[in-house]
Write the structure tokens for this entry.
Amino acid sequence: MTESKKIRIEYYRSAISTPFKHKRVVTGLGFTRLNQIVERVDNESVRGMVKTIPHLVRIID
């Protein structure tokens, strides 16, 4: 089996005063609390979600 590339994303700014769609993207990425780091498959859909909320998350190498 081929291993999929992974991307590590950190949720570092609160989504309190952001639009509802941004909050949905944050939960869609799997974040439940601030300063959390999740690992997701590196594909176009995840990259698009990160691109939607660059002011709330950062990509960790």
